[in-house]
Amino acid sequence: MNKVAHYLQEHLVGEVMTGADARKYFSTDASIFSVVPSLVVYPRNENDIRKTTRFTWQLAERGRVVPITARGAGTDQSGAALGQGIMLVFPAHMNRILELDSKTGAVTVEPGINYGKLQQTLNTHNRFLPPFPASVEFSTVGGAVANNASGEKSIKYGSTREFVKALRVVLANGEVIETKRLSKRELSKKLGLATFEGEVYRTLDALLEEHKDVVKSLPIGVTKNAAGYALDLIKRKDGSFDLTPLLVGSQGTLGVVTEITFETEMYNPNTTLVAGMFDNLQVAEQAMLDLRKLPELPSAMELVDEQLLKFVQTHHPNLLRGIIQEPLPKIVLLLEFDNQSERVQKKMAKKATKILDKYQVSFRVETDTLKKEELWKIRHSAATVTAYSEGSARALPIIEDGVVPIERFNDYLNAVYELFARHGLQVAVWGHAGDANLHMQPFLDIGQVGDRQKAFKVMEEYYKLVMDLGGSTTGEHGDGRLRAPYLPSLYGPEIYQLFQQVKKIFDPYGTLNPGVKIDVTLNDIKAQLRQTYELAHLYDHLPRS
Ligand SMILES: Cc1cc2nc3c(=O)[nH]c(=O)nc-3n(C[C@H](O)[C@H](O)[C@H](O)COP(=O)(O)OP(=O)(O)OC[C@H]3O[C@@H](n4cnc5c(N)ncnc54)[C@H](O)[C@@H]3O)c2cc1C
Questions:
Q1: CA of 312 to the centre of ligand 1 (A)
Q2: Which end of the chain is more exposed for a tag (fewer CB within 10 A), N or C?
Q3: Rounded to two decimals, what is the model's pTM?
């Protein structure tokens, strides 16, 4: 690797490090895996990335594959921010807002910018980027784009993909492309290019045409999905073509993003928050289905379950004192309305409380900022689970992101409770009720052989149950290494082969984040398990969950 390091040190403006401590630091993310990179680069600009990729392309042409992994803040729970070759770390230098159009709200940024910082700036212009993840304060927008992240506002506003208008991307050979929706005519021009970009457009377009029917069958019946490649969103009936939705969610396996243009939404902090306390899961599902039919969707529909409340009571008895009373409800549902019109907001909140009344569910309605913050503590108390350790056992992100069709919510939750009971595991559940996208992290000791085996058994059963319910293995966190082995069963062989072909089109030599998403087996990932699980990268901030 020395030769590679020397070449890069000579040709890049950014820093290139090969020291053991830097490599160790970047050998983990927030997943259960560890992969030590051979060197770490802090690119100063796009040119540094072009030079790096061009060099690895030339090496690969001569038979030597040096992988490149782009990295934001390394909060990825699927192991996608790890790699054994060159680690391109964005937050150090490529972290600027390049343009903010205060009229349209469009903003162009470099990928390494901290998401929370961007959000603050947008807020001062009365705008916001709605699909922010719970890790907003300590993750980057580049990571959010690569993972197609979403969060508590996604029920109303959608995932990251819906907000990315355009990208600048460095391809595997060092060419830079700009992506946006192209008209049929613009596409024709791209198809005629004699460059690698032209080849990508030509082969991808031909592939999509040849497998039109398979591509059509790709969407899973869930409201959010971060699994696979979004092949169905590239070409529209009118012949227009856009690589952007494909690159969003591709976890650095198809190209390295250097600039992102987002659309944003009007920001309204004057919301109405309704907290409903449910004693019956069946009733909760019915009420949620009714709430989803409101003329205007709530801007959040979040839940925590009784087990989480019990966990908080035991380990952080003061955290929710005075906020939640005994007997504990089976589910607390938080509904937020952020409509710009106060009249509409009030009307929607009223309609929501009528639904809760119909099901004889007790509730609170708050518009006061402090009172709302207090109620949001219920949902954000899930962070106590991820931050807690019991001896060497930690809440492991192994089954933390399944999503099912909303009408299967109750079946999903019951099946999860059964699964945990069968394995004698503690469970606490929280997440995005309105999308039936639930988070849960069982307490296991990754250093113990028995627990390692149990983790894989639990994963096998969990991913099967999610698929049997017609769901997706990941609503927002991505396939990464963790869920890549389940991708063929999730989509079936025909679609999976298309994914493989798409990967080959963009990355013929396998230099872009190999070991992530495509062609990954359970044996591959078993060999990458960490000995201890901790979140050292996140200790600058309390990890919200
Ligand atoms: C406590 C906790 C809570 C979380 N909550 C949520 C949540 O609510 N919703 C959610 O969606 N996720 C959540 N996550 C997962 C994760 O934080 C998000 O997906 C986040 O957006 C990742 O950003 P990052 O900067 O940490 O990216 P990283 O972890 O550094 O990287 C993530 C992926 O992006 C790729 N990448 C990074 N930069 C680039 C680039 N410039 N070009 C190409 N690829 C790139 C990486 O290769 C990797 O595949 C959570 C994680 C934790 C630990």
A1: 26
A2: N
A3: 0.97
